[in-house]
Design goal:
The structure is a single chain. The chain is an alpha+beta fold. Helices cover 71% and strands 9% of the residues. It is built from ten helices and seven strands. The strands form two sheets. It has a five-stranded mixed β-sheet with strand order 2-4-5-7-6, with helices on one face. Helix 8 packs antiparallel against helix 10. The longest helix has 77 residues. It is rod-shaped and about 195 Å long. The chain starts with a helix and ends with a strand.
């Protein structure tokens, strides 16, 4: 049975119980009033008959001169008794036994009245005996009426107590239903709200009580699930954002560390050359040689600063290319001219092999030159003394390929695919210093020109070959 039906049934039972209690109280009141009237009438009749008996006895003992007034008193008492029997008829129950008793009482009263109306000495004795018998009977009726009143009171008290107990139990059951159907669901919703506010999972409530409260619980559960989903999503987003911030901070720290290390070497060289020149100011040749090394280191330092700035701008999306029709062979020769002094001061030779014919492409000459210089600088760093850097340009149909190879130790096969990643350095690279940013910048520039950058070790000898392939304009 649903809560609503149970409440309706409980209300109907309560109304019915109250109706029974009211009807019982009215019935008991009427029964008590009727029984009390019968008791009063029986006592009154017993008193009349007893007085009539006493008057008959007194007449028998009185002088003849007192018989006439006493007969009149006896006749008045007899008439009063007959009138009381007439008045008693509306108090008598309609059942056969009660009617028979009333008829018998009336017959005996008429008999007594007849004897008193034509008295003689034997008649007064009979009247005395009959009046005594009637008085005893009336007293018995009075006792029966009193017992009936007592029994009615007991029965009415039991009925009223039973109905009151039933109403009490019904009120208790109704209170329990109210608690289960209204109070408990509301308390569950309050508890769920507290758990949701305190972020204690799960913040779900059980469906119970009225249909409206169950519907409210369904909506609360949906809302709690949506909030938990949003919180989880935002928590994940915050964790990802924090991870990105940690990664950015890590890259920033690594960038600063690499920059400080990368710039320290040319600055140290420049300082050393200047100190040598200051110690021997009279040696013009040594002074010129120191100045050449200082200039070369300054140019290298300038290129490293340009590379670092360019890669930082590339990560932020601020670095752009300005493509236009250019000659790739001319760009390669310009790059060769830029790195020649640094290679010479480092004791490394440069060998340029480029066709005399123009190799037309569409690109940004500054960025392409920057990429080529970064690749050559990387080769110089890993080449042994008296080593050679070879720059080779070949054009084949719609593609042009610049191969830059060195005589260095090469790269482990497992690291070849990663040397173009920012900050990555193989074991040999970490031992030689550097930032690991030059090749990353070169790949970024190659990608922006529609080309690609590859690296491979020499098959027959040590060394690394980095190839830049770009599309050629017809």
């Amino acid at each position: 049975m649903s809560f609503r039906k149970a409440m309706v049934a409980g209300a109907l039972a309560l109304i019915l119980s109250l109706a029974v209690l009211i009807v019982t109280s009215i019935w008991h009141h009427r029964l008590a009033a009727r029984s009390l009237s019968r008791l009063e009438m029986a006592q009154h009749q017993a008193l009349l008959v007893t007085r009539l008996e006493a008057d008959i006895v007194a007449r028998q003992l009185a002088d003849r001169s007192q018989h006439a007034p006493m007969d009149q008193v006896i006749a008045v008492g007899m008439r009063a008794y007959l009138d009381s029997i007439e008045n008693e008829r509306h108090l008598i129950d309609t059942d056969a036994e009660s009617q028979a008793q009333q008829t018998h009482e009336w017959t005996r009263a008429q008999e007594l009245a007849g004897i008193i109306g034509n008295p003689d000495r034997a008649g007064w004795r009979t009247a005395r005996a009959l009046s005594h018998d009637i008085a005893v009977r009336e007293q018995g009726e009075a006792r029966e009426a009193a017992q009936s009143i007592a029994q009615a009171q007991r029965w009415s008290g039991w009925l009223i107590g039973s109905v009151a107990l039933f109403i009490l139990l019904l009120c208790g059951a109704t209170g329990w239903l109210l608690w289960r159907g209204i109070v408990a669901p509301i308390a569950a919703l309050i508890d769920g709200t507290d758990r949701l506010r305190a972020e204690r999972a799960p913040a779900r409530v059980r469906l119970q009580g009225l249909h409206e409260l169950q519907h409210l619980a369904v909506q609360f559960n949906d809302m709690a699930e949506a909030i938990e989903t949003q919180v989880a999503t935002r928590t994940t987003a915050l964790e990802q954002a924090n991870q990105r911030l940690r990664d950015i901070d890590g890259r920033r720290r690594l960038f600063l560390s690499k920059v400080s290390h990368e710039l320290r070497t040319p600055v140290t060289v420049m300082r050393g050359e200047a100190e040598v020149a200051l110690r021997r100011p009279e040696d013009r040749a040594a002074l010129e040689d120191a100045l050449v090394h200082i200039v070369d280191s300054g140019q290298f330092l300038h290129r490293r600063l340009d590379d670092l700035l360019a890669l930082a701008q590339a990560d932020d999306g601020a670095l752009s290319v300005a493509p236009r029709p250019i000659d790739l062979a001319a760009v390669l020769r310009e790059a060769h001219a830029m790195v020649a002094p640094f290679a010479r001061s480092s004791g490394i030779g440069l060998q340029l092999e480029a066709a005399s014919d123009a190799v037309p492409i569409v690109g940004d000459p500054d960025r392409l030159r920057q990429a080529l210089v970064a690749i050559v600088d990387n080769g110089i760093k890993f080449s042994p003394p008296e080593g050679m850097i070879r720059l080779d340009l070949r054009s084949d149909g719609d593609r042009a390929r610049i191969a830059i190879s060195d005589d260095g130790p090469g790269v482990a096969e497992a690291d070849l695919a990663r040397i173009f990643d920012p900050y990555f350095q193989a074991d040999v690279g970490r031992s030689r210093g550097g930032t690991g940013l030059g090749l990353a910048l070169a790949r970024w520039i190659a990608d922006r020109h529609g080309g690609h950058l590859d690296a491979a070790n020499h098959r027959m000898r040590e060394g690394l070959c980095v190839s830049l392939t770009l599309p050629v304009v017809s």
